[in-house]
Amino acid sequence: MTVTSHAILFDLDGTLVDSEPGIRASYRAVMRELGHDPDRLDLTGLIGPPLEDGMAKVLAREGDTRVAEGVRLYREHYGREGLFETRLYPGIVDMLDRLAKDHARLFVATSKQTAFARRILEHLGLAPRFVAIQGAEPGGVERKADVIGALLAAHDLPEPLTLMVGDRHHDVDGARAHGLATIGVLWGYGAREELAGAQWLVDRPAELSVLVTRILAGGVDPVRGA
Description:
By secondary structure, the protein is α/β, with parallel strands linked by helices. It has helices spanning 20-33, 51-60, 67-80, 92-101, 114-123, 144-154, 169-176, 205-216; strands at residues 7-10, 17-18, 87-88, 105-113, 132-136, 162-166, 181-185, 200-202.
């Protein structure tokens, strides 16, 4: 029997969408604006964490401390061009539709700013599939644990009936901070090793939908795993 009160929180970058092309383009624009060679840009491990963290690491390699300026330039470019280069991973739409048929309540919990996340999902036609889209908000909700906490509080989501789905250790750590189980996805930007704390790992969206359907039906213990 399906449990209608389950909530599924999805990370965005590396979980629902491949945002690397637009992120790379916007970082390269920042490098050019600040007088650095964009061909030296290395984004390894930097897609997923908060933008300020990634910008600090990118600019530190150039001996540049203008992180706030870099973030401002990045957001200008990303909002104008970069976000429109985002692509859906194959199988995501079918996976979300299957979960909706199982009466799961779907949410987005991302470290990207809420406004950008919403524009991306609207551009891709996915926004109506989610009850709410929660991202980072300057001066308050910034870390993944904060984002998850904001969703839990705003929608009165019970921790035992809420799952986090993501591709980076920030998703696992943020979920753990609130006592949530996590499904780690292996098609994104994180390596299998950094997802070791997740209760489950899946290779494809179709596999994710099957697993979540089993959890909703009570066939899997969300604390111990399969």
